[in-house]
Design brief:
Layout: H1 16-65, H2 114-118, E1 138-142, E2 158-163, E3 172-177, E4 182-186
Antiparallel strand pairs: 1-2, 2-3, 3-4
């Protein structure tokens, strides 16, 4: 008869060297993955900023082509506004002057309510990308390139997008004017600094 005996050797665990090797492998994988994830997030934010400017651009053209402010001509607006403010992209047709009138519901608006909190300085040239609620890390503002005629705006409009943190929420600034082309430039701000709306009509096309 065969007698089974219990082994005297306890279960073998991981050695310190094995644990260090595993930790090193995990560190290498994280070192590869994290920069790619950050880059993907920045690209996504920049793509969203471009789409937002395209939305504003299309709204400006609808505002002008349909003469929604009842001025009798083809002009634009430098206001994002809100539903209580006529003559803006949020409330274009209730009145022909900014800061008066009002719209009864969202159906009258050319853009959605998220633009209200992401605009830096409604109706005035933007300086720094500081807004109440950025859209995917970007704030929007009126461009100083068209500030020479802020009242009639019969020939041009200009909107810009800049990141809230350079290199953290985005790497590029964007702009769009009446030629309908999205322009872009790489920010010159140091990492983490607030964007300064550096894009202009002389920048290369991003489309």
């Amino acid at each position: 008869m065969i007698k089974l005996t219990k082994s005297n050797n306890p279960e073998r665990g991981f050695t310190l060297i094995e644990l260090l090797v595993v930790a090193a492998i995990i560190g290498i994988l994280l070192g590869i993955a994290i920069p790619n994830l950050i880059k993907a997030r920045l690209s996504a934010n920049e793509g969203n900023a471009r789409k937002a400017l395209q939305t504003i651009r299309d709204a400006e053209y609808e505002y002008a082509e349909q003469d929604l402010n009842n001025q009798g001509g083809r002009d634009y607006t430098n206001f994002i506004g809100d539903l209580a403010t006529g003559g803006t992209l949020r409330c274009p047709s209730s009145d022909d002057q900014p800061n008066t009138g009002g719209c009864s519901n969202e159906n009258e608006s050319l853009i959605d309510s998220t633009f209200e909190n992401s605009v830096v300085s409604d109706g005035s040239p933007a300086v720094a990308a500081i807004c109440n609620r950025p859209k995917a890390g970007y704030c929007f503002g009126w461009s100083a390139d068209v500030n020479t005629d802020p009242v009639t705006l019969t020939g041009d409009f200009g909107w810009e997008a800049s990141m809230t943190g350079a290199g953290k929420t985005g790497r590029k600034d964007f702009s769009v004017f009446a030629d309908k082309v999205i322009k872009c430039t790489v920010t010159t701000q140091s990492s983490g600094s607030t964007g300064q709306f550096e894009s202009s009509r002389t920048d290369p096309d991003c489309d």
